[in-house]
Amino acid sequence: MTPLHEVIINKKTTINPIWIMRQAGRYLPEFREIRKKNPNFIELCLNEKLSSEITLQPIKRFNLDAAIIFSDILMLPYGLNQKVEFKKNFGPILEPLQLDRVLKTNEENFVNKINPIYKAINHVSKNRLVEDKNTIGFVGAPWTLLVYMINLHSPKKGLKEDFFKDNYLIKNILQIIDKFLKIHLKNQIQNGANVIQIFDSWAGLLEEKDYQNYIYDPSISLVNYVKSFNVPVICFPREIKNYQKFCEIVKPDAVNIDYNVDPLTISKTIKIPVQGGLDPKILLTDKEILEKETIKYLDIFKDHPYIFNLGHGILPETKPEMLEHLVKVVKNY
Ligand code: CP3
Question: Residue 211 belongs to what domain range?
């Protein structure tokens, strides 16, 4: 059985598999090399040869237990014909949403437009480097995608007051997102993804009164859908106020925690397997601090099914040797 399945399905506590959010990315010189020659990020995600190669880069370097496919949550709006661009040092920029264009997209158009992602998952999952490991497919949660599709860039300063003003649009878009996320999930699973992670990166922007409509209900729909394929699903409702309540209501197979929650409280109150938590900034310090902080998480979760990961993506400034050390500490624990 693969390492993540041992923990998530068999609830094994004697192993601590490790993979890292954004493990294929800018902190790796071999990634930057490819990126330099491929200024268009979307095109790079749709180049199955290069995206497979990038996915495998961290697997070649470090003793990680899972490959996560090199792609982006914003391939969904892209597949729905809302243009997406990535500007250096700024992040994603989407073109204003045109509901009629989105409504015209059918399953066939969508799958054809982003088909190289599925081919890459297929290549990666069959590669001998990944043989005994997991291949992780992923999507953005409906709320986080709605945020990008309406706000058009990362809401670093919070949402504008009029975000919710067009109720008709929001209702329609959420339905479309649900439909196409399921198509996207199905194709990833059918091509070899054997774990799914759902990123709700902007869950922390909502007030608790809005959780039911924008976080719980849309997540339940996707979690149940993934479970129908017998594939485990990990949810990451980043900076949600109450992880325990989220787990009780949404019932994912595992939950990724952010670095602002107290891991000890989580270990005592959450019954399902846990993933992640370590602050990515710890990897910018030194090996001694890294070791101490890593062991803190491993100690807290020593009797709990636990997958080692960070509380958010690895930072571009990280030195690869720090990740190498982290993997060593986790494996030697
Ligand atoms: O984890 C992995 O290694 C797999 C690949 C992956 C990427 N994005 C590649 C990427 C995954 C899982 C994502 C998810 C993603 N994308 C999320 C959810 C996780 C999170 O970070 O909260 C979100 C919100 C996005 C949207 C997105 N994509 C943003 C905000 C940005 C710009 C900010 C940044 O970190 O650069 C991206 C670009 C992006 N996606 C890069 C990578 C490797 C950097 C692109 C570059 O080389 O310029």
Answer: 3-332
